[in-house]
Amino acid sequence: MKVLNVLSLIIERMGPSIRPHIGTLLQFMPQLWEESSHEGSSMLRCVILIALTNIVKAVEGDSLQLQPMTTQAIALATDVKRSEHVYLAEDGLDLWLAVLYHTPSVNDVLLHLIANMVGLLGLGPPGDDSSTSMAGLMDIGNDGLEVCFKILEAYTVLCASQPAQFMQHCSEVVVKACVCYLCDVKPQCVMAILNCVTDAIGDRHGSQVVEKAVLIYPQYIQQLMTPLLSLILRCLLDDEVGVVLFKLRANSSAYLVMCHLVPRPHHIVSTLYHAPCHTHTLPRPLSCPTPLPRPFLQYQSTLPAFYAVISRVVLTDARFFISYVQQLNLMPEYQKGTALPWEPMVLMQGVELFGLILDHWADKLDSVALVQQKKLAGLALSTLLPLPELSVVRRFAALVNMCVEVLHDVVDTDDDNGSLYDVLMGTAEPKEKTLHHLREQQISQCDAVFTTSLHTCIALKLEECRFLHGPIYGQLVETIDPSVREQLVQFVSIDL
Question: N or C: which end of the chain has fewer CB within 10 A?
């Protein structure tokens, strides 16, 4: 074991220079792995896993020849049905991530490995003894949880050229994991889910499992996001629930109900109204567990990541998002006894949920610090401007004000010719040169955040508003604060 430790250190220090000697290493590594299979050799196997991880990182794209052994080792180390996974899981996860980062393409063996993630994250059905509750997570710990979501993110990127493979093998695990942990972990772990790889491609690129899935697989947005949107909206609006409830207690005709989509009595937030127990009737594309959410106040630091996901959904398919939210606000249907598909459900007499989301978005926009997340919000908000929904028309001035705020952060003036330019146009070179990071760079080249000029987009959307709204457009422009209008015309060359 001491020899292997020294060898692993040498491989790590030599890096790519070790490539000519890989053949020699491959001669004894498989035999050593088999000979260490007897009981009590788990520590030796841990050292072998570390050595394999360093070899994979050193040979980079040539690691494909190692996959027969590495995938076998990963499968054993991360299988919660085997008792030795308690010792091997941490190093097995590191090897798994290294293999995904350096593999040139996805294959069936790698796709089948993702089944082990069900046990590690405790995503199996209640009757499955091999992956119950949080047993797997108890063994891998918080650091292991972060690596698990990095692995899921790596699969999301790796399968970009084969979306059908992702949907068949990976999508359900990805969505289940996000739904299961989004409201059951501390804020730093929420960021491991929504922002699990910081600075993935340069300083400006935050890698998010959920957001990236929407970016890469827009044609499957409904299947991917239907189970997640309700939880994300709940996390965004729970602080608003307390404010609204406080205002409504004095009004006996107003009420607020919060309920969960599980076959148990609903939790009543207000004593003004008691609701019967219902279960949801709208089928979900992907079957997901439904956890009890924690109080929202601890998630304030994660608001920008949540709104980045909402922005990505709106930018990809605004109609889907609006129609989904409108289903959550069908109060007459609830009064008839038809359950509504979200968890928890906020129903307020006289309050339109989509409008509440827009108001909350306007209030929290200042909390977004990353310029790429602000631009993403600006693109999404400009996409909403031409829509005829009453909630949008009533908040036209507020939406324009938000767009102008983002323009100040994203658009700068060229010192040479005085022309305006978007500071996020183009993509930066990745800091790391792994195949995974190069794949991410290719994906970012199709991302509107880095390919669409914000001030040009807003100008086009305003022209679209003029065409669609006709005479009403002038009235909408008049609702904009004069100082905001003055700032807007400095960025967009159109006649308001």
Answer: N
